[in-house]
Amino acid sequence: MSTPFRIECSDGIGELILVKPPVNALDSDGWHALADAIHALGARADLRVILIRAEGKGFCAGVDIKELDAHPERIVDVNAGNYRTFEAIHRNPLPVVVALHGFVLGGGIGIAGAADVLVAAESASFGVPEVDRGAMGGGAHLQRLFPVQKVRAMYFTGDPIDAAEAHRLGAVEAVVPDAELRDRAMALAARIAGKSAAMLRLAKESLNGIEDGNLEDKYRWEQGFTLQAYMSPDSAETRRAFVEKRDARFDARDHNTPETP
After folding, report:
1. Before 160, cis peptide (omega within 30)?
2. Per-domain residue ranges for the chain?
3. Under DSSP, is residue 195 helix (H, G, I), strand (E, B) or coil?
């Protein structure tokens, strides 16, 4: 299995770059490998900040739908890999900066929502197509980025928002031309890397401790509904439609809805 990312470290910055063409969608093994790598970067004494970015058409399209269409039983392992990755970012002892471009979907939302600081390219767009993919998850991390009602509108409709709107809502630190994304993100990471390592670690732990609610517990709640969703025929149909590049077809009567007396 080829590793879906590469790592470059210098001057106190651990840079992790997603490189899984064409859309940086990771399978179950890829998510676990990513979690392990992020944990390892956080344990390095020579680093003060982690920067996550991606190459290709977009930042991250989330999980590999084709894997789950062929092996629906792997949903539990995919869930575990997602959980470990987002926790590795959120609970990492080091600040995590994420540079976003193109599509930020599903697991990409989890990475962004778990991070400390975001920089977005003008091309970036944020979306949660979970309802259209027969899954759940991402709401807890999306709610770290955007207001509650915006999250629900995005979730129920599947409509994305662009980088400018994300900046207006306060989710991203800056929106920059695509060609300048890495330089601007590295400059921000360098500013952080110039601080005291001890103070940065204390600040990260302190800020996590004062958050409203436990992000990992909230995401675990969502994952229970992901497993329930995968038990529905509608969920299988959404994945099959995605793989076959067609619209999903559902029964006229929603078999998950109790009959009205």
Report:
1. no
2. 5-178+196-209
3. coil
CATH class given for the domain over 5-178+196-209: alpha beta
163-191 residues labelled b (16+ CB within 10 A) or e (exposed): bebbbeeebbbbbbeeeebbebbbebbee
Q: How far apart are CA 241 and CA 139, in angstroms?
A: 23
Please give the Cα distance from 225 to 199 (Å, whole number). Answer: 39
The CB-side HSE value for 213 (13 A sphere, CA atoms) comes to: 11
Q: Give residue 99's identity as a one-letter amino acid code.
A: A
Helix/strand/coil for 147: coil
Cα(125)–Cα(195) distance, rounded to whole angstroms? Answer: 31
Q: Report strand pairing: 5-10 vs 13-18.
A: antiparallel
- With beta carbons less than 8 A apart as the criterion, state whether 27 and 67 touch: yes
Residue by residue, pLDDT tens for the chain (261 residues) are: 589 999 999 999 999 999 999 999 999 999 999 999 999 999 999 999 999 999 999 999 988 878 877 888 888 898 899 999 999 999 999 999 999 999 999 899 999 999 999 999 999 999 998 887 777 778 999 999 999 999 999 999 999 999 999 999 999 999 999 999 999 999 999 999 999 999 999 999 999 999 988 999 988 888 888 778 777 888 778 778 877 888 888 775 454 544 444
Q: For residues 87 and 114, what is the distance between their CA atoms, to the nearest angstrom?
A: 7
Report yes or no: 207 and 93 within 8 Å, Cβ to Cβ: no
H or E segment and range at residue 228:
helix 215-230
